[in-house]
Specification:
Layout lengths: L3 H29 L11 E7 L12 E5 L6 H10 L4 E6 L5 H10 L4 E7 L8 H8 L3 E4 L4 H8 L3 H11 L4 E4 L1 H4 L4 E3 L9 H6 L8 E3 L10 E4 L8 H15 L5 E5 L3 E6 L3 E6 L5 E4 L16 E9 L4 E3 L4 E3 L3 E8 L2 E2 L1 H10 L2
Parallel strand pairs: 2-6, 3-4, 3-5, 5-6, 9-10
Antiparallel strand pairs: 1-4, 2-11, 7-8, 10-13, 11-12, 12-15, 13-14, 14-17, 15-16, 17-18
């Protein structure tokens, strides 16, 4: 029969084994549970990088950076960072996470910090913390994605007012792709869930698929402009002409202009309204400014718009607002749209000037 000491040792070992197994089960259960998302807030997600308490090194200056999408032309972003006094950049978006803030802070550099707000609900555009972050930003960047989300989440909200106030305070703002699309006084909102192509827009420019938005953001020098992105790469000249034609009728104005920007290309507009092109691969900025209404524009009918002036700008060009005068254009064309189809001259212009 085992001694009392032997039985005690046996029971101690059993107890230790039980405790070890319990700890292992607890660890496995905790590992199987979903991790808490530390970025989650009410209606948005939040990310940051850098030193949020650092003093901004320089003074801020007004500036608009219009980027066509795709890879970033870093010279344009350095221009915007300088306008932001090398301080804190706030990125607003409705998809993705830290891609843009990492590129600003790690790849380009020269800023104290970057913060990202990723919206998934309109209520976030009234959140006091969101508004504080935007109000204290030295520069604001609107990322790419789906511009219909920006319209739904931001238009007519306190955030909308805060973005306008940021610009009035003489601080820079920029946008790429969807972020570019909403910077003009008029925007293609893509509110039907699609992205209209040029043939469809020209076939029925008065149709329901041409979802144009106004009275959203109010940027200096863009009061009579509609902007478009991914321009040459996605053959968007036809749709921009259709947008301008429709706006001219709806707004009863002939002073409207369309600005299309190629990928890897940016148009940077300074406080005095002088704009220059930055491009990483020879891309262009396209200026469409007919100064009259279309020859044929009616519901259910294809567009006819003859002799539309189109001016291309490259890195050697200068565009001056508000009169849209161009120095050293890369090309100049007169474009015909007849019965919803771009004429031969238009197709030639597109082929000659698209990378």
């Amino acid at each position: 029969m085992p001694s009392t000491s032997s039985r005690r040792l046996f029971l101690q070992r059993c107890a230790l084994l039980i405790l070890t197994l319990a700890a292992a089960v607890g660890t496995a259960t905790a590992g199987d549970a979903p991790a808490t998302d530390a970025s989650r807030r009410d209606g948005y997600r939040y990310f940051e990088i850098g030193d949020l308490t650092a003093t901004r090194p320089g003074a801020t200056e007004a500036g608009l950076m219009l980027v066509g999408g795709g890879d970033w032309p870093y010279d344009a972003f350095r221009w915007m960072i300088e306008k932001a006094g090398h301080g804190r950049i706030v990125i607003l978006r409705a998809s993705g996470t830290v891609e843009a803030q990492d590129e600003f802070f790690k790849d380009i550099g020269g800023i104290t910090a970057a913060q990202t707000l990723v919206f998934d609900d309109r209520r976030a555009a009234s959140d006091p913390e969101v508004l504080r972050i935007v109000r204290e930003a030295d520069g604001i960047f609107l990322a790419g994605g789906d511009q219909s989300n920006y319209v739904r989440f931001w238009k007519g909200t306190p955030l909308n007012e805060a973005l306008d106030a940021h610009v009035r305070a003489g601080k820079p703002i920029g946008g790429t792709s969807a972020g570019l699309a909403i910077l003009g006084a008029f925007a293609y909102g893509a509110m039907d869930g699609g992205s209209i192509v040029s043939p469809t827009a020209m076939t029925d420019p008065a149709g329901s698929e041409v979802t144009l938005v106004d009275d959203f953001l109010h940027m200096p020098y863009l009061q009579n402009v509609i902007t478009d992105s991914h321009f040459g790469e996605r053959d968007r000249l036809g749709r921009l002409i259709a947008f301008v034609a429709r706006l001219s009728v709806e707004q009863k104005r002939t002073d409207l202009a369309g600005i299309g920007i190629d990928e890897y290309t940016a148009l940077c507009i300074d406080a005095g309204g002088i704009a220059r092109v930055h491009s990483g691969d020879g891309g262009h900025v396209w200026l469409v400014r007919p100064q009259r209404q279309a020859d044929v524009f009616a519901a259910g009918k294809p567009l006819t718009f003859r002799d539309v002036p189109v001016i291309g700008l490259d890195t050697g060009s200068t565009l001056r607002f508000p009169d849209f005068s161009v120095e050293h254009p890369a090309f100049e064309r007169r474009i015909d749209v007849v019965n919803g189809v771009l004429g031969d001259a238009a197709r030639t212009a597109s082929l000659e000037s698209t990378p």
